[in-house]
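Data availability (excerpt). The following record was deposited with the supplementary files.
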Amino acid sequence: MIFTLLSLSGCQGLWYQFLNIIVDIAPDRFVSKKIMKSYQFPIVTSHPLDKNNNETEYLIIMIHGAGLNANKTFETGQQIIESLKMPKDRFWVLAPQIIEGVKLDEKGLLFWDRRWRSGGMSLSTGLNKDLPSLSSFKVIDRLIDVAIKLNPGIRRIIILGHSAGGQFIVRYAAINSRHEFLEQQGISIRYVVANSSSYPYLDQTRFHFNSAGEILITSREELMNCRSYNKYKYGLEELYGYAETLSPQIIRTRLLTRPVMFVLGTADTDRAWSQDKSCEGRRAREKQV
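Predicted structure:
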C-alpha cells in the first residue's frame, strides 16, 4: 500500500441531490493505490498522515452523517478531546469524508451510492471511470493501518458515528476483519453508535411498540408486507460489499463479542425526512429496540 496526504487550498463544493445542498469537500486527501491504480478520498486530520508522532496514544475516527459534513464532524471530535482535559498530542482525530454522489470535478476521488453506510463498493464514472472498486469499510481499514504504522504508540482506537455515521459504525463493528488482529497487537478498539436510523438484525425476529409503549414481537404476517426486511443492510441475507464473503454466523459472533456502545438521544423524535423508511420502525428509538 502506498499512501500520502495532499493539502488543497481553497474550498471545494459538491452538489448533493439527496439533501439539495452544497457540501464542502474536506481540505486534505488520503491517497493510496490498489492494483497499480491511484485513488483518494477527502479527509480532515489533526496530524499529518505522512509524519510520525510518537506521543499519540489514542486514535479517534469520526464518521459523518447523511449531510457528509466531515469538517463539522471533525470539530465535534476536537470538542470531545478538549472536554477530557488531557494533552492534545496524545490524540489523533481523523474524519474521512465518504462522498455520496457522482457530480465530481476532481480526478481520482472515490465516491459511493447510499450503500456506503453498509460497506458498499465505490462507483466509477466520468473523470473517475478507471478507479478501483473499494468498500467504504476498507477506507477505515487503511486509515487504521497507516495510523499504526506511523504511530506505534497507539494503544486505543475509538470509532464514532452519528445518524448515517452510526449506521456505518454498527455494521463496521459487526463485519470488519481488523478487530482481533489489533487486539493481538495490544491495541483495543471501541465502537460508538449514536442515533442510527437502522441496525443489522442478527436473526429474523423483529419488534415494535404498541400504543401503550410495550415492546412486542412483530408477527410473521406483518413482516411479509416488507419482503426485504431481512436483506442486508437490515438483516443477514443477500450480503454485499465488504460483507459478501462472510457467513451470517461469523457476523453474529463478531457483533456479539465486540465492544459496541449504543447512544440514543431521547429528544431525537423529529426530522422524519432523514429516517430510514424500512420495516424496522418509524423513529430512532423504535429502531433500536
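Summary of structural features: The chain is about 20% helix and 25% strand.
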